[in-house]
Structure formats: C-alpha cells, structure tokens
Amino acid sequence: MTDWHKISLEKLAKQEEIPDGYIRVSGPLEHDNIVNGDGLRAVLWTQGCPNHCHGCQNPETWDYEAGMLVPIDEIIERLSQFKGQAGLTFCGGEPFVQAKACREIAERVRKELGWNVWSFSGFTYEIIKEFGGEPWEFLKSLDALIDGPFILSQKDLGLKYRGSKNQRLLHLERPTGKIISIE
Question: Peptide bond preceding 133: is omega within 30 degrees of 0, i.e. cis?
Fold first, then answer.
C-alpha cells in the first residue's frame, strides 16, 4: 500500500460528527447551476474537508467547525422550491466526510423530486470502495461521481466538469455503485 493510499484511507475515516437528520453546509443552496453537472442543477456545498488540495477554489470549506448545521428536512424543502432542475450535485468541502447525511439527501431527492444525483470528491472511487461503510453507501446512491483530488499542476480549464486532468467523471449504476462509463 502506498503512502498516498494509506493517508487517503485515514482522511476518509475522519467522518464529521453531526447529529442525525442534519448536515453541515458552507453556504446557501444554489439552483440553475450549469457547471457542476449535466443540465440545470441544484448544488449543495458541504463544509469540512481533510484533503486541503493546493490551489483549491474553496479553502473556506475546509474547517469542520465552520458553516451552518441545517436540518435535512429544511434542505429538502428548499430544494423542492427550485423548478426546472435536472438534478442535485454535492460539492465541497468534501461530501464524503458527511456521507450518511449526503446519502439521506440523495435518496430523498431522487424519490421526492425525481432528480439525478452527482457528487464531487477529492477521494478516488477505489479509495471510497475500499473504505466501505457510509461513504460507499453514499457512492452507491449516485448517478455520477467526479473523483480525485484537484492537482494544480494538472489544472485544465477545458475539461468538462473537472478542474484537473487526473480527475474522472464516472457514470455509475445504482444501487450497485458499479462504473458504467468513464469520461
């Protein structure tokens, strides 16, 4: 096991401790977003990230203590008021350190609003799968995952939905989490 692999697993183990039925967000929900996934999308910005990628566009989301603790029911109510959205995208911060809350929101958005669900993660698919537990259960609730840390030296503004060349857009099979295709 490489040092990077071991460190990634240790970082993913740092699941944020929040009360059941809540999520810590870094700011207000967005709607009509066209850069964080296919079609018009709502975006939920999670708070807390252990990765601290050099050149990150959202370093204010790293602190686990910052942001706002919001009831999941309130998130769903706000999302239900957004009309014409194709889906929801989880951004961050790092959504996979709040995997249980994100999974609950993903499942409710799909069931109650009929939307597809995407997420970004600084962790790779392989790390999430190996770690298992709540992060893997959240991944299995997704239609797509943009995975991998942002690497400033590989930054490419021409990439669709990604910031650096190492990142992948993975289309996933629900509820197995199996990769259907990779962009």
Answer: no
pLDDT digits (tens, 9 = 90+) for 90-121: 999 999 999 999 999 999 999 999 999 999 99
Largest CA distance in the chain: 47
> Is 0.70 surpassed by the pTM of this model?
yes
Query: Residue 149 above 70 pLDDT?
Result: yes
pLDDT of residue 1: 62
At 1 the three-state DSSP class reads coil
Coil vs helix vs strand at 3: helix
Tokens read off for 46? 């999670």
Q: Which domains does the chain have, with CATH numbers?
A: 3-15+22-177 (3.20.20.70)
Question: Rounded CA gap, 50 and 94, in Å?
Answer: 8
Long-range pairs for 128-132: beta carbons < 8 A, 24 or more residues apart: 128/12, 128/96, 129/177, 130/9, 131/9, 131/12, 131/13
CA 76 – CA 42 distance, rounded (Å): 11
The answer to whether the beta carbons of residues 122 and 62 sit under 8 Å apart is no
What does the alpha-carbon distance between residue 13 and residue 50 come to, in Å, rounded to a whole number? 10
